[in-house]
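Model: Ready when you are.
Researcher: Fold this.
Model:
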Amino acid sequence: MNTTRIPAAEITGPYGALVKRFSKKLLGRVPEPLGVYWHNRPVLKATMGLGAKAQKWDACDPSLKSFAHMAVAAQIGCSWCLDFGYFQAFNEHLDIDKAREVPRWREATVFTPLERSVMGYAEAMTQTPPTVTNEMFAELLEQLGNAAMVELTAFIAISNMNARGNVALGIESEGYADSCELKPLQTPGLRSLA
């Protein structure tokens, strides 16, 4: 286990048993962030609920959302989000060779122009203050359409919330990608996820 800034709480009670059982079934273990967020269950429930709802959105291509999420995580420096995002991409049968290159997408040659635009947009939204331009937005809107653009934007915003929260709380990679024997992520500037 990692050393978080707030130690993980013991997950107890009927709701805790349900959460632990679901986590173990889905992931093989209880993720460390769950114990940290357990200190404030209304926050945990809201965060998990929003994440579960966002996973059901279907106006935007799942690969584009996955790449956007990982681009946010790489820029913020959330090793947990990158590790878990890579694990999720594997389990959702997305292009793993592309997913592992997201942290260095500008140098990688595997991405389409649309994928590059999405990751550039994700990074522009993540800057403080955001650096999204009218031209950048219009280019993506033309390719994706209104519904997918709204969804992508909201997904990137949620990714920012989660990544920034994890970094601030000291939550780091737990080796989800390793459990699937995935090739290491290309993570310049972050501690190795291998």
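Researcher: Now this one.
Model:
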Amino acid sequence: MTFALTVPTTATTLNDPVAVIRCIPGVERCEPGPDGYTLTAAVGMGPVRLRLQGTATVQAEDQSLTASVSLHDTLAGSIYGTFAVALGGGAVTVRADVVVGGRLGEFAAPLLRRKAEDSVKGFAANLSRLSG
């Protein structure tokens, strides 16, 4: 699934990857590691609740950030994605290419696009609070 979304924000910088990653709704843990970052995220869609573990590699600059993320739950499946986040004109633009595998991909595909858009909006709101 590929999507792009632009939402208003008052954020002015993306140069702290850990702080930016923690702005993603559901991220419980983000720690630097030897090859990037180690993540734990809790995701809910309707009655389904998942705790995903994984890694991210990030390249951050003042006005942009790119990340490759790999998250998985042993029973439900995996989420792999590449994300590009850019600030400009009072808005944050997120472009993502996401692949969802396993049971999660089979049964939740119709819900995933809406969940992804809601997460981006939450991310932008959290990023505004971080910078404002």
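Researcher: Key takeaway?
Model: The beta strands are 2-8, 27-33, 36-45, 48-60, 64-73, 77-88, 91-101.
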